Automatic annotation (TrEMBL):
It comes from Saccharopolyspora dendranthemae. This is 3-phosphoshikimate 1-carboxyvinyltransferase. The keyword Amino-acid biosynthesis applies. It comes from the Bacteria. GO terms for biological process: amino acid biosynthetic process; aromatic amino acid family biosynthetic process; chorismate biosynthetic process. PANTHER family: AROM/DEHYDROQUINATE SYNTHASE (PTHR21090), PENTAFUNCTIONAL AROM POLYPEPTIDE (PTHR21090:SF5). Pathway: Metabolic intermediate biosynthesis; chorismate biosynthesis; chorismate from D-erythrose 4-phosphate and phosphoenolpyruvate: step 6/7. Belongs to the EPSP synthase family.
């Protein structure tokens, strides 16, 4: 039976301070680097959610030791990686794209599978690239098998990464351990989510790896050791966006403590987006504080670099005045679900007026009425439904539990934020 979560309506302006768990993208990169490093690593304040637990389980099954520290940290002891092993990717893009190169560096047979929707996500580009770099792989999408020999030749490979920046990040993260490192060249329509590749490059450099990213669409990683990590994981700024949106749509004020002054996380772009929509946005020693206006202004915006913010921005746009145009996000059709179709269907199901374009969405704000809001196993669809429910009575979010992909207790955090105001 479908489980429906009655999204709470805000009784008034939402006022709260909301601490956020760690970044998914940083945690899963750190786990991969730590498992390939030259000594034991410590990760403080990692995200503990489905995507990161799946990454940790997979690395454990390959031989790494990952243990819980008393303060919620993760200690990672690398080891010689070996199969046979079975990797469950769930619906995590980071697991299905970052781990095949790691598996190619292990010995033995390593089989990969995931959720039914994961089998539809683009992946063949990574597997073909690994074959070109010397790996033995059977299959072109989930499920597939890597037959590791303990090392990989590496070298130069040209790929089309227009469907996902994770194709590039996955190859770069393991590349210091390839015999000849790697040079990845992109050829095709523009690569989405470039800040996520910058995050990969920055984390490799922090671990002492030499990376040349000076030429557009080309990344070179030199072979060499990966130094053990001793790292504090930043709060997840993309997961912060539904909470900040709560302030924006209710004329309230929400503070997220620990917002980094400088970051490679694309979620930082929410500051500019909310300011453009008329919110007051302040970053100071308390963190990031967003205060909503009486009415949000529509936006015309290219989200290619920050596509994972789209469900939040679409919910904001549906509650703003006038027409918004979200562009540059055709690749969202290969995310957890086809997010353009899902947002169009569900917003129109509430009485909205939304249409897909070739590379985005046109959203005309209309008075909305409550109805079932389907999540399509997509955590960010579920949180978008929660944002809408603050202002639209009767929004029933199907499968809110899917938020556990990247947030351990979203309904609890949402209720805590609303306190007496729901
Ligand atoms: O590398 C990462 O951690 C991510 C890269 C992006 O993927 P795409 O480039 O496929 O959009 C982003 O949307 C995803 O949530 C996380
Ligand atoms: C696209 C996303 O996830 P994934 O890492 O599974 O690609 C996301 O979190 O919005």
């Amino acid at each position: 039976m479908t489980q429906l979560w009655p999204a709470p309506v805000a009784a008034g302006a939402v006022r709260a301070t909301v601490p956020l768990p760690g970044s998914k993208s940083i945690t899963n990169r750190a786990l991969v680097l730590a498992a390939l490093a030259d000594g034991p690593s410590a990760l403080r304040a990692p995200l503990r959610s489905r995507d990161t637990e799946l990454m940790a389980s997979a690395l454990r099954s390959l031989g790494a030791t990952i243990t819980d520290g008393p303060d919620g940290s993760w200690q990672v002891d690398p080891a010689d990686l070996r199969g046979p092993a079975e990797v469950d990717c769930g619906l995590a893009g980071t697991v299905m794209r970052f781990l095949p190169p790691v598996a190619a560096l292990a010995t033995g047979r390593i089989s990969f599978d995931g959720d039914p929707q994961a089998r539809k996500r683009p992946l063949g580009t990574v597997l073909d690239a690994l074959r070109e770099l010397g790996a033995d792989i059977t299959g072109g999408s989930l499920p597939f098998e890597v037959h590791g020999t303990g090392n990989l030749h590496g070298g130069t490979v040209t790929i089309d990464a227009s469907a996902s920046s994770q194709f590039v990040s996955g190859l770069l993260l393991s590349a210091p351990r390839f015999d000849h490192g790697v040079t990845v060249r992109h050829s095709g329509s523009p690569v989405p989510s470039l800040p996520h590749i910058e995050m990969t490059v920055a984390m490799l450099r922090d671990a002492g790896v030499v990376v040349d990213a000076s030429q557009r669409n080309t990344w070179r990683v030199e072979p060499g050791k990966i130094s053990a990590l001793d790292a504090d994981v930043e709060p997840d700024l993309s997961n912060a966006t539904p909470f900040l949106a709560a302030a924006a749509v209710t004329g309230g004020s929400v503070t997220v403590p620990g917002w980094p002054a400088r970051t490679t996380q694309p979620g930082d772009a929410i500051r500019e987006i909310l300011a453009q929509m008329g919110a007051d946005v302040r970053l100071d020693s308390d963190g990031l504080t967003v205060t909503g206006p009486d009415e949000l202004a529509p936006v015309d915006i290219d989200l290619r670099a920050v596509g994972e913010l789209t469900p939040t921005v679409a919910a904001l746009a549906a509650l703003a005045s006038g027409r918004s145009h979200l562009r540059g996000i055709a690749h969202l059709r290969g995310h957890e679900t086809d997010r353009l179709a899902a947002l169009e269907n569900e917003l129109n199901g509430l009485g909205g007026q939304v249409q897909q374009t070739e590379d985005g969405l046109i959203i005309d704000a209309r008075p909305l009425t409550g109805a079932e809001w389907r999540s399509y196993a997509d955590h960010r669809m579920a949180t978008a439904g929660a944002i809408l429910g603050l202002k639209v009575p009767g929004v029933m979010v199907e499968d809110v539990a899917t938020t556990s992909k990247t947030i351990p207790d979203f309904p609890g955090m949402w209720a805590a934020m609303l306190g007496d105001s729901a």
